[in-house]
Design a protein that fits this description.
heterodimer; A: 77 residues; mainly alpha; 0% strand; B: 173 residues; Ferritin; 3 helices; rod-shaped
């Protein structure tokens, strides 16, 4: 069995911090998307745009959670 | 003058598209910083590393891919805003032609107004209808194509976002 190569724990903190910052940025982006409204002037295009904005906000929010989880797991490693 | 021929606010569409691209750019910066930090973990191995690394890398990849899709959506919306602005200008010019020809718009259809007119005036107006209608059609077709394109792109990119939401990183054992 190969020996475990330990790493300077500071680097794990750096990665965990960066994951956490990325998580905050993703959540902020999710809120930002929902805060603005673009008037396309057409019902079909408007529905498509709003569906995209909602889906993008949901994906960014899920991504934020995922990044935060990974950060926490790394801090506990 | 009749009601607006082309609806929609290109300024708001451009603002939303620009906002999406700014957020995408910020997320990409975070992805790059995360990539640099992950690079320092290359020498880390053993059970702890084997458990944590796939989740970290998957999170980074998801961040990068989501930023790419968001940038593409913002660019599509900005292109639409440009098309809509052109459509407004084409519509404005078409309406001016309608007005100058002494005609009116019924929705997007160019018609002669009701009321008494001399035979000569009526004939002059009537002869103008096809050419003025062509101007109106040019504006509405321009915007119609742009709207169809936007709706298709938004639907396709929404699916790409949904696929990203489903692509969760592997759980650490």
């Amino acid at each position: 069995m190969p020996a475990e190569h330990r790493i300077d724990p500071t680097w794990l903190d750096v990665v965990a911090t960066q994951l956490s910052r990325s998580s905050s940025a993703a959540l902020e982006a999710s809120h930002e998307l929902l805060a603005h409204y673009g008037d396309t002037g057409d019902a079909t295009a408007q529905r498509a745009l709003e569906a995209l904005v909602n889906q993008a906000a949901g994906t960014l929010s899920a991504l934020s959670e995922c990044l935060a989880d990974t950060s926490r797991e790394l801090q506990g490693a | 003058m009749t009601a607006t021929l082309v609806y929609g606010d290109y300024v708001s569409c451009s603002r939303v598209g620009g906002g999406m691209r700014s957020e995408a750019s910020r997320l990409r910066q975070h992805a790059r910083a995360l990539e640099d930090a992950i690079g320092e973990l290359v020498v880390w191995n053993g059970p702890g590393a084997d458990a944590a690394r796939p989740a970290i890398v998957a999170s980074w990849e998801a961040l990068r891919a989501t930023a790419d899709v968001l940038d593409e959506a913002g660019a599509a919306l900005q292109r639409y805003a440009t098309d809509l602005a052109e459509g407004h200008e084409l519509g404005r010019r078409a309406q001016l032609r309608v007005h100058r020809a002494g005609l009116i718009l019924d929705g997007t259809r160019v018609i002669e107004p009701w009321g008494p007119a001399s035979a000569q005036e009526s004939e002059r107006r009537c002869s103008q209808v096809p050419v003025v209608q062509a101007r109106v059609d040019l504006a509405t077709a321009h915007v119609g194509r742009a709207r169809g394109r936007l709706a298709r792109q938004m639907a396709s990119l929404a699916q790409a976002f949904a696929a990203q939401a489903l692509a969760r990183p592997p759980d650490t054992p």
